[in-house]
Amino acid sequence: MTLAKNGESLPNEVTYYPATGFRVDRFDSFGGWVGTPIDLCRWSVRYDAIEPKDDYLTSKSETVMWTVNDLSLAVRPYAKGWLVQDGWKGHNGAFDGTGSFFTQRPDGKGFAVVMNTKVANDSSSDTLRNLVDAMISKVSAWPTYDLF
To answer: What's the CATH code, domain 2-137?
Structure first.
């Protein structure tokens, strides 16, 4: 994963439809990252408090990170910039040229999905998340080896 460059594609970076008019190089952690769904999953398993991968933060720091704060948005509970609601933890992304969601479900399974367009009428990528979640819910057996 790396920070985006404005007006300049990185090696293997997709074309966005439509191209955003934002200065993404100024976004930093607010939508300025370029990465794959696998990159997001590799990163997120280090902050999920689930074995067997060791987490980078202490359990105390993770508790603080995932605890909803008083400044949380009225529409969605936020915890240090993360969406935390009904056992779900993660974050979304959606503006011209992108739609994404990475999350940990209440059952501990996590997933990431990234698209090079924004789904019509899906301003927060919730429809995208729900679609992938419905597919994952139908899987009856998962591999027992490390997927990444």
So the answer is: 3.40.710.10
